[in-house]
Amino acid sequence: MNVLTEHFFNPRNVGEAAEPSFTGRAASLECGATLRLSLSLDPSQHIDEAKFKAAGCSILVASLSVLTEQVKDKTTAEAATLGNQAESLRELVGCVEVARSHCPALACEALIAAIREYSDAARNEWAGDEALICTCFGVSEQTIEREILAHGLSTIAEVTKACNAGAGCGSCYQLIEEILRTSAIKQ
User: Fold this and answer.
1) Residues 57-95: tens digit of each pLDDT
2) Does residue 148 contact residue 179 with C-beta atoms inside 8 Å?
3) pLDDT at 94
4) Cα separations (Å) of 109 from 83, 149, 151, 165?
5) CB under 8 Å to 48, separation ≥6 — which residues?
6) What pLDDT is attached to residue 14?
7) Cβ-proximal residues to 185 (8 Å cutoff; 6+ apart), any chain
8) pTM of the model as a whole
């Protein structure tokens, strides 16, 4: 039995993750599919549970089943990396129909949205001495400022390469842009 058939007829992780959970949603105007992916994390930012609910085709269900299996026990940063690899998921599931090639991307979109929801909550609850900017990689504002000043960085891509900030879910892009603007004014 191939991956698509196995995960469609025996989907893993259907339902809702335990509370507290973080939810990402995605939908397609192209085919009418809708889905919700929820994550529950342990204190070390590892995913305890990843579950989904979906109304869509076999490729969508199989993609969500495979993706939720892949992210278990991963950190949010590792999961975000998987969420940014829709093409790899499409190949793993065996999606060869061009008309349905967007389904694995929808699964990845929902995963990234759930991680962003977690990241936003983590930043709001942060009690550290330095402002936390990138929750996926635990990068502070001062670390980003030091890298910008030390290496003359001017883009998010340069900051990401220097200290990993922004390499995960991307919810910190706006904050990094603000730090870049502020640093440019100071120079």
Assistant:
1) 999 999 999 999 999 999 888 999 899 899 999 998 887
2) yes
3) 87
4) 7, 34, 33, 20
5) 17, 18, 40, 41, 42, 72
6) 94
7) none
8) 0.78
Extract the tokens encoding 47.
């995913």
Is the Cβ–Cβ distance between 167 and 77 less than 8 Å? yes
Rounded Cα gap, residues 91 and 43, in angstroms: 33
**Active-site residue numbers?**
31, 103
**Residue 187: is its pLDDT beyond 70?**
no
SS3 state at 84:
coil
36-39 contacts: CB < 8 A, separation 24 or more? 36/110, 37/64, 37/67, 37/68, 37/107, 37/110, 37/111, 37/113, 37/114, 38/114, 39/71, 39/79, 39/111, 39/114, 39/115, 39/118
Cβ neighbours, 10 Å, residue 56 = 21
For residues 128 and 106, what is the distance between their CA atoms, to the nearest angstrom? Answer: 35
Residue 136 half-sphere exposure, CB side, CA atoms within 13 Å? Answer: 27
Q: What single-letter amino acid sits at 182?
A: T
What is the C-alpha separation between 76 and 48, in angstroms, rounded? 11
CA distance 143 to 83: 25
Q: How many residues does the chain have?
A: 187
Half-sphere exposure of 116 (CA within 13 A, CB side): 17
| Amino acid identity for residue 118 in this structure | Y
Helix (H), strand (E) counts: the chain: 8, 5
